[in-house]
Design a protein that fits this description.
Helix content of chain C: over 70%
Structural class of chain B: alpha/beta
CATH architecture of the largest domain in chain B: 3-Layer(aba) Sandwich
Largest interface: A-C, 47 and 42 residues
CATH class of the largest domain in chain B: Alpha Beta
Chains: A mainly alpha, B alpha/beta, C mainly alpha
Oligomer: heterotrimer
Distance between the termini of chain C: 18 Å
Shape of chain B: globular
Radius of gyration of chain C: 22 Å
Number of strands of chain B: 10
Shape of chain C: globular
Chain lengths: ~290, ~240, ~350
């Protein structure tokens, strides 16, 4: 395997990290809430994709929009039922609440779906790859990357061009001022949470053909998501995308050059350094 | 620096982005003075406070207090040396009781809980908050929060006290009470700098007035002389103040 | 201020006022009463551990372990309001330090306990210097990353830590080896350490440091204006907290006699600590203890009775309880008890 090959596969998986991170960064930028349940919501989305395929033979890329919409609704419920009541509380309270949601989802998955690693059995994609100039690109990885690019682009367009996007950005900048300007801040929060969780849905469906799913799969991915969020700049969707690609490459290259087991430590050390040296991240927030 | 000089600010400058909030300001303050700092909104009064109190670092200039250079000293060190300040937008330690708030102030100068409690109670008594000692600071009304802010600062046993717009938003009865408090604090030997918009109240108290505008000091002297200066009246205080 | 304690009507019968005076004295000296009670309670727990079946002994020791951990966390997470998500790191450093010293160098775990505490405290200090400059979510994320780095180091420094496979501590029972066939000696050691953690918390909460930490928690800039050296008090709190968590780690390793990276450095450990403290009531001395007393036995019972058929049920309880507490009793069970007592006494005084 050449270094170029490694960089390419890092970029591709980085797209999925970006997708997961953009959901976290959006919610953080607008609502100032660190959603520790995002990893478990991704896990739920992966299981949903898997079960739709196992039970009804739904192709994962057909399941993707279904899971995305389903998770949007989950996000609405999560906000309306739980988070809404802690918006005025401190960030500790919100973090602990989302931790509670994460623990519950993880436990429920273990309880009802078991602890086994499960993979999608999908013939046309298994092992499929394209050869481009001596580099082999896994088709499912390429698909996940394309999905990530499209979803991020759509989100940026939504934030930039629509009335809803303007309301979201105004709320992120100053929720009090937004409220005074007649923006229904509570509804903006609700929709933001919906979109944030929907992004976990998209990421989960895109990941299912690549990764195995198990109840704690979200923990590692969530940590990667946080690294990306901080690298990209809290509240910056474009930064999350860029950060995702960088972290994907750093992880892939360091596991190629050093070892897979050290690559994580390197990513987190990288993370600590960014936090301490440039806590504002690479880009200013589009939403914050 | 002579013995009775408590504060000397020279050439103090602070820029925020393109705005020069404080533009080479010089002020000298003697022990026992009650200096009123006046000026329109955005004149740089609060920024000057933040600089003197060590909350913000100046871009240029020096601050000497209590006979030594304190330009680089952080806020907590300034407090330990005898400078206390209040915030324009009051910042009660909301989850703590009124007494505990004042005790945190008292701990600036003592390690003993009993002594801190005593000093805190004295300060609360002085501002008329003793009956609310056990109340959570977060549930006080604005008038009481302002008094707590002052009590907390007094509990640190300051030699120099900076009060930032403590009278705004008080009703007339509260205002009279507050002026009494300031008077007794001043009588006890504390040197004060007060930023105020309520000019007539300040006129009763101040031994000296400094007027700022657009980051610069534009007048400095006896209350009557400064307030009579047509420039000050016309340009920076506006007509409504003339009657006072 | 409570008017009842100030002006008791003089016309009241002597008996009532005497009872009330006794009640007031009890309230005023409640700390002393609790501390005096703690030793007989500990003795009773040790006796139960010695005489009852294995499960209950284990339940008592493991509850003490987590109560002590959550109490240690509370010094920085509760008193100072700095939400540390990496406390497993200090627990793990204590556990690995004493285990490595014992297994590889034959040094008594009693010395290992001490060295582990010092190392964990030192590490908390070194990590605290850069991370305490961060605020809110940034601090939480930095501590999370720190925990992840330590976990990865424990996995990767195989020669020292045994890697993923972990470390087994030889079973050679004696007091000198801090290794026992019975559970009751562990209950004594862990119980005393828990009391030390509570004692340290109590002293901090009731002295200058405690007030200054509370001020930092409420509003750091206002605290600084009141003469609080916020960087210093946070570092002291962090170091003491790390030191105590490291001590718990060393004792825990001797109790379980097997540690691996996931069991002591895992993020689940850090999260469990926070859940206990928050459910019990963070920021008050007894809060984490209350949380541990409720949740640890509950999850241990569920694990014993349903662990085989219904895996995940015992952790589900943690998740649901913490959600309910954050939503309906943000000051935890301790806060709930307190406000109930206040409401009852207020009601009585009105009559």
């Amino acid at each position: 395997m050449t270094l170029v090959q490694v960089v390419v596969s890092g970029l591709l998986i980085g797209g999925v990290y970006a997708l997961l991170a953009s959901g976290i960064t959006l919610v953080l930028g607008v609502m100032k809430v660190v959603n520790f349940a995002q990893g478990e919501l991704l896990m739920v989305s992966m299981y949903a994709t898997l079960l739709l395929n196992d039970g009804f033979g739904v192709h994962p890329y057909v399941a993707l929009p279904l899971v995305t919409v389903g998770m949007f609704l989950v996000g609405l419920v999560l906000h309306g039922g739980l988070l809404r009541w802690t918006i005025s509380g401190g960030h500790s309270q919100q973090i602990v609440l989302t931790l509670g949601v994460a623990i519950s989802l993880q436990s429920l998955a273990l309880l009802f779906l078991g602890g086994d690693y499960r993979t999608l059995q999908m013939e046309p994609f298994l092992g499929g790859s394209l050869q481009v100039g001596g580099i082999s690109i896994g088709t499912t990885r390429l698909a996940a990357f394309v999905i990530a690019v499209v979803a991020t682009g759509a989100l940026l367009l939504l934030l930039d061009r629509t009335l809803l996007g303007k309301a979201i950005r105004a709320t992120a900048m100053d929720s009090n001022a937004a409220q005074l300007m007649g923006i229904p801040v509570q509804r903006v929060y609700l929709v933001t949470m919906g979109i944030g969780v929907a992004l976990a849905g998209t990421a989960g469906a895109a990941l299912m053909p690549i990764f195995s799913v198990y109840p704690t799969v979200g923990v590692h991915l969530l940590l990667m998501g946080f690294v990306v969020v901080v690298l990209g700049g809290l509240g910056s969707v474009a930064g999350a995308f860029l950060g995702g690609l960088i972290i994907g490459v750093v992880e892939a290259v360091s596991s190629y050059l050093i070892s897979a087991s050290w690559s994580q430590a390197i990513v987190f050390a990288f993370f600590m350094i960014i936090l301490l040296v440039r806590p504002q991240g690479l880009l200013r927030g589009d939403v914050a | 620096m002579t013995d009775d000089l408590i504060l000397r600010v020279s050439g103090l400058t602070k820029r925020f982005g393109g705005v020069t909030a404080v533009n080479s300001v010089d002020i000298e303050l003697r022990r026992g003075e009650l200096l009123a700092l006046l000026g329109p909104n955005g004149a740089g009064k609060s920024s000057l406070f933040n600089l003197i109190a060590g909350a913000v670092k100046p871009d240029a200039g020096t601050i000497e207090a209590f006979g030594q250079d304190v330009t680089a000293d952080p806020a907590h060190k300034m407090c330990a040396q005898g400078l206390a300040r209040t915030f324009q937008i009051v910042r009660p330690l909301a989850g703590l009781s009124v007494l505990d708030n004042a005790m945190v102030g008292a701990f600036a100068k003592t390690h003993s809980v009993r002594e801190a409690q005593r000093r805190a109670s004295t300060a609360l008594e002085l501002v008329g908050l003793a009956h609310l000692s056990a109340t959570k600071a977060g549930s006080l009304t604005l008038g009481f929060r302002k008094r707590l802010e002052v009590a907390r600062a007094l509990a640190t046993q300051p030699q120099l006290l900076l009060l930032d717009e403590m009278m705004a938003g008080l009703n007339p009865a509260e205002l009279d009470k507050f002026i009494d408090v300031l008077r007794s604090v001043h009588r006890e030997g504390v040197t004060l700098i007060v930023v105020e918009h309520v000019v007539h109240a300040v006129m009763q108290l101040a031994t000296r007035i400094v007027v700022m505008a657009q980051g610069r000091k534009i007048a400095d002297g006896e209350p009557r002389t400064v307030m009579a200066s047509p420039d000050v009246v016309a340009a920076y205080l506006g007509d409504e103040y003339v009657v006072a | 201020m409570n008017p009842t304690t100030r002006e008791a009507p003089v016309t009241e019968p002597d008996k009532v006022s005497a009872a009330r005076a006794a009640g007031t004295a009890l309230v005023r000296h409640r700390h002393l009463v609790l501390w005096l009670l703690s030793l007989p309670v500990l003795g009773l727990l040790v006796a139960i551990t010695a005489t009852s079946e294995l499960f209950y002994g284990h339940l008592i020791v493991i509850t003490m372990v987590f109560a002590a951990l959550a109490t240690a966390w509370n010094i920085v997470g509760g008193f100072a309001g700095q939400l540390s998500l990496g406390h497993a790191g200090f627990f793990g450093v204590g556990a690995y330090t004493s285990s490595i010293l014992y297994v590889d160098h034959g040094i008594s775990p009693w010395i290992g306990l001490f060295v582990g505490m010092v190392l964990a405290g030192l590490m908390a200090l070194l990590i605290g210097i850069p991370t305490f400059r961060l605020h809110g979510p940034y601090f939480a994320l930095a501590t999370l990353a720190m925990g992840a780095i330590l976990l990865n180091m424990a996995v990767n420094f195989r020669e020292l830590t045994g890697g993923e496979g972990g470390l087994s501590i030889p079973f050679e029972p004696s007091w000198a080896n801090m290794t026992f066939a019975d559970r009751w000696p562990y209950a004594i050691i862990m119980g005393i350490f828990l009391l030390i953690c509570l004692g340290v918390s109590f002293v901090i909460a009731n002295t200058r440091l405690g007030y200054q930490l509370a001020a930092v928690r409420e509003d750091e800039e206002a605290a600084r204006a009141l003469g609080v050296n916020s960087a210093r008090v946070k570092l002291i709190a962090g170091t003491v907290s790390g030191l105590l968590a490291g001590g718990v780690g060393a004792i825990y390793a001797q109790y379980i006699l097997f540690i691996n990276p996931e069991s002591v450095f895992g993020i689940n450990v850090s999260i469990q600590i926070i859940v206990l403290a928050v459910v019990g009531g963070s920021g008050v001395v007894l809060g984490p203890l209350i949380g541990a007393l409720i949740l640890v036995p509950a999850s241990q019972f569920l694990l014993r009775d349903f662990g085989g058929d219904l895996p995940g049920l015992h952790t589900l309880v943690y998740g649901i309880v913490v959600i309910v507490v954050v939503l309906f009793a943000p000051r935890g069970v301790h806060g709930l008890i307190r406000s109930t007592v206040e409401r009852l006494t207020a009601h009585r005084s009105r009559r």
